[in-house]
Amino acid sequence: MQIDDIKELMDKMSQTGLTVLEFESEGSRLRMERAPQVVSAEMPVSQISPGLPQPATVAASTSAEPPADEKEGQLVLSPVVGIFYAAGSPDSDPFVKIGAPVEKGTPLCIIEAMKLMNEVTSAWDGIVLEILVENGQRVEFGQPLMRIGGN
Questions:
Q1: CA gap 7, 9 in Å, rounded
Q2: 3-state secondary structure of 14
Q3: Quick check: 150 and 126 in contact, CB under 8 A?
Q4: Domain containing 110: what range?
Q5: Residue 102 sits in a domain of what CATH number?
Q6: Are 143 and 120 a contacting pair, CB within 8 Å?
Q7: Mean pLDDT, the chain, whole residue set
Q8: What is the pLDDT of residues 34-52, one digit of tens each?
Q9: φ and ψ at 85, to 5 degrees?
């Protein structure tokens, strides 16, 4: 089985909504799993029953500062379930460190999933403010890996 065949199977899984796929051919066996897609829908206010109390409207704060519990910057999320690696190999320097400037497209880390190395790149220009996981740590789909902010 070639890598293109595996990518095609992954695409088919996404298109059909499958969460588990097992494939066996000529002595080779492949099992792929992905987290199920969670779809949440909010009911528009106009559809709320008139007999129910309406939610109160809260005025937005005019302060320009974010609340104390919110941190500045953008979160870099894991695109897959796998193992987080800060460097390309065990004896290499990490791709980035806290305080390092990054540009859009800069490699930040690698997530190993099913023996495939998935390079995670920055979607923003800025500075690495936080690295939220340890090298070699297992990460989940959508788990925050780093925070990038400010120029």
A1: 5
A2: helix
A3: yes
A4: 74-149
A5: 2.40.50.100
A6: no
A7: 78
A8: 765 544 445 444 444 444 4
A9: -125, 130
pLDDT digits (tens, 9 = 90+) for 126-149: 999 999 999 999 999 999 999 999
H helix or E strand, kind and range, residue 3: helix 3-16
- Residue 30: pLDDT band (50, 70, 90) is confident
29 & 79 share domain: no
- Same domain membership, residue 139 and residue 78: yes
Cβ 108 vs Cβ 76: under 8 Å: yes
For residue 36, give both structure tokens.
């199920």
DSSP letters, the chain, are --HHHHHHHHHHHHHHT-SEEEEEETTEEEEEE-PPPP---PPPGGGS-TTSPPPPPPPPP--SSPPTTPPSSEEEE-SSSEEEESSSSTTSPPS--TT-EE-TT-EEEEEEETTEEEEEE-SS-EEEEEE-S-TT-EE-TT-EEEEEE--
How confident is the model at residue 70, as a pLDDT?
Answer: 61
pTM of the model: 0.54
